[in-house]
Amino acid sequence: MEEVKDVLALFDTVDKWRSYIELANMKTDLLNELKNRLITELKKIAEMHLDSAWTLYCDYNSICIKPSVTPLIEIIIQWHWWNTPWCRRGVCLWVDAKNTDSMSVFSRIREKKSLLPLQEYVENIQNHSWFPFVKKIPSKVFDVRDEIVSIDECLFKAKDKAEQLAYDLWHEVFEPFSSKEIAHIFEEIIK
């Protein structure tokens, strides 16, 4: 409670308070602008480097690549899951648990794990059947301290370094999966 009183003391004029309210009301728009900058740069990278066996999907909620032959599996950053303990600053291997036998798919992924770039991923099936493997994205990608997991703070790099953030994210998260061979392995796993 004392902290709130200290912060309120910063607003010693109506104009300062109004400015704060205006900025607070713009938070979603500001975050969407940062996401848009990142998405724009990721699309450029994908256009140059993503094999035709994969498709990039981006919106303000998520960024993913999925094999072109199946919509039932993907590598995804889904921003709203960053609020859960099992996906802090995370990227997930996603499996459509509604249209697949997710436990069977999970078992087949485990069998082929040595052929897939999942060495840094941890099993997550006990937390969520749709996201059987997750990995914490290294803090260096976002130029933040390791304990920072907030999307708001991680996306700040996109303000002035969107191209660099996109490249770092691509290299760390999507590039290891982006070959035709990996797409075919995922296709076999889903069959």
Can you describe what's shown?
The chain is α+β, with helices and mostly antiparallel strands and 191 residues long. It has one domain (27-190). The chain contains 7 helices and 6 strands. It has a 6-stranded antiparallel beta sheet. Helix 3 packs across helix 6 and helix 4 packs across helix 7. The longest helix has 23 residues, at 27-49. The protein is elongated, with a radius of gyration of 19 Å.
Radius of gyration: 19 Å
Average pLDDT figure: 94
**Number of continuous helical runs:** 7
Low-confidence stretches: none
For the biggest sheet, the summary is: 6 strands, antiparallel
Tell me the domain tally: 1
The helical percent reads 40-55%
Report the principal-axis shape.
elongated
Order of helices and strands: HHHEEEEHEEHHH
**Lateral arrangement of strands in the main beta sheet:** 1-2-3-4-6-5
SS strand fraction = 15-25%
Structural class category: alpha+beta
Distance between the termini: 56 Å
In short:
This protein has helices spanning 2-9, 14-25, 27-49, 102-112, 151-154, 157-174, 180-190; strands spanning 54-58, 62-67, 73-78, 90-95, 122-123, 133-136. With 191 residues, it is of the alpha+beta class. The termini are far apart.
Secondary structure topology:
Elements: H1 2-9, H2 14-25, H3 27-49, E1 54-58, E2 62-67, E3 73-78, E4 90-95, H4 102-112, E5 122-123, E6 133-136, H5 151-154, H6 157-174, H7 180-190
Antiparallel strand pairs: 1-2, 2-3, 3-4, 4-6, 5-6
Helix pairs in contact: 3-6, 4-7
Primary descriptors:
six-stranded antiparallel beta sheet; 15% strand; single chain; alpha+beta; 191 residues
